[in-house]
Amino acid sequence: MKTNSKETVKKIFLQIFPDLEKNSFNFAMDRSKFENWDSLSHMQLISEIENAFSLSFEMDEVIEINKPEDLVRLVEKKINA
Predict the structure, then answer these.
(1) Residues sharing a CB contact under 8 Å with residue 41, sequence separation 6 or more, in sequence order
(2) Which of 25, 60, 76, 78 is the most exposed, having the fewest neighbouring CB atoms within 10 Å of its CB?
């Protein structure tokens, strides 16, 4: 995982979840640990990530995302494809 991709994903997570403190952010955190990670915020995350990296995700890929690291991994996979 490239640092740039990780930093961009982290930045987007911190924008979508403003109550999350920067130093408590962890790429391995499960979505259940995010207080407001619901279906709407999930789609906001996907939209912001797709725009930031000029990518498009398939629905089955979107459904599998449960942690920030899942998004980083998917972005890296798409960039390196």
Answers:
(1) 16, 17, 34
(2) 60
Query: Domain tally for the chain?
Result: 1
What range defines the domain where residue 39 resides? 3-19+27-79
Give the tens place of pLDDT for each residue, 3-15.
589 999 999 999 9
User: C-alpha 48: how far from its chain's center?
Assistant: 9
pLDDT of residue 2: 47
**Helices 68-79 + 39-53 axis angle, to 10:** 30
Radius of gyration of the chain (CA): 12
The whole-model pTM stands at: 0.88
The phi, psi pair for 21, rounded to 5°, reads: -80, 140
**CA-based nearest residue to 31, from 67, 74, 6:** 67
Question: What CATH number has the domain bearing residue 36?
Answer: 1.10.1200.10
Q: How far apart are CA 71 and CA 43, in angstroms?
A: 12
